[in-house]
Amino acid sequence: GDSVTQMEGPVTLSEEAFLTINCTYTATGYPSLFWYVQYPGEGLQLLLKATKADDKGSNKGFEATYRKETTSFHLEKGSVQVSDSAVYFCALSDMRGGSNYKLTFGKGTLLTVNP
Amino acid sequence: GAGVSQSPSNKVTEKGKDVELRCDPISGHTALYWYRQRLGQGLEFLIYFQGNSAPDKSGLPSDRFSAERTGGSVSTLTIQRTQQEDSAVYLCASSLGVLGSNEQFFGPGTRLTVL
C-alpha cells in the first residue's frame, strides 16, 4: 500500500537557519503530494502541494519539489522564524480510489525555532 | 460556518463504554473524512463520505467503529465498547469533493482518552 516516511524529530533550529525536512513516499500510482502544518493549539492546515512530477509547491517561504525519480518531496525554507515552530506532516493522495482522495500521512516532524 | 468544527474537544471515558464524536463540515462541502492520530503516529484514514454515495469504510479498524452522515452534512463517529488502544485524537476534514478542489480542511479534533 501507499506509505510516507519523513525524518524523525524533533528538529531544533536558531532563527534564520536553513530548514530541510526529508520526506519520501511509496505509491503505485501517480499521487499528489502535500505538506501540512499544525501550529500549537490549532488544527492541521495545508502548507503547500504538488500534483505532478517536477512541480514545485511554495507558500510562506517554504518550498518542496515533487521528485518522481527519487520518490521524494523534501520541505525547505531558507530562513526560519520563531513563528514557524510547529509540527509538519508530509502526505500523499492517490486518486486510484475513485473520488476518495484520502490522505496518507507521515508521522510528523516537530520543529522548534529559538530566537 | 467559518471552518470545520468538532465536539467535544476532549472526552475521557471508561473502558467498555460507547462514545460519539461529532463533526460539522464547512457548509457546501460534499466530501467528509475521519482520521485518527495515535500518539507518535501519523494520521490514519478511517472513513470517507461523498454526497449520498455509500461511504468508503475501508479504514475502520474494527466493527466497534461506525459512522454516519445525516442530510449530507453533520457526521457522527461512534466507538462501541471502547478499548485503551482507541485513545487518540480523532480528526474530521471536509472538502468540495467531486464538485471542486480536493483540498481537505481539518477540524481541531477530539482527544479521546480511554481509562
Offer a concise description of the structure:
The complex is a heterodimer of chains A (115) and B (115). Chain A is mainly beta.
Structure notes:
- The complex is a heterodimer of chains A (115) and B (115).
- Chain A has strands spanning 3-6, 11-14, 19-21, 23-26, 32-38, 45-50, 56-59, 62-65, 75-77, 86-93, 103-105, 109-114.
- Chain A is mostly beta strands.
- In chain A, the strands form 3 sheets. In chain A, strands 2, 5, 6, 10, 11 and 12 form a 6-stranded mixed sheet that branches.
- Chain B has 115 residues and is an all-beta fold.
- In chain B, strands 2, 4, 5, 8, 9 and 10 form a 6-stranded mixed sheet that branches. A 4-stranded antiparallel sheet of chain B has the order 1-3-7-6, with no helix packed on it.
Write the layout of secondary structure elements.
The complex is a heterodimer of chains A (115) and B (115).
Chain A: E1 3-6, E2 11-14, E3 19-21, E4 23-26, E5 32-38, E6 45-50, E7 56-59, E8 62-65, E9 75-77, E10 86-93, E11 103-105, E12 109-114
Parallel strand pairs in A: 2-12
Antiparallel strand pairs in A: 1-4, 3-9, 5-6, 5-10, 7-8, 8-9, 10-11, 10-12
Chain B: E1 5-7, E2 10-13, E3 19-24, E4 31-37, E5 43-50, E6 65-69, E7 75-79, E8 88-95, E9 105-106, E10 110-114
Parallel strand pairs in B: 2-10
Antiparallel strand pairs in B: 1-3, 3-7, 4-5, 4-8, 6-7, 8-9, 8-10
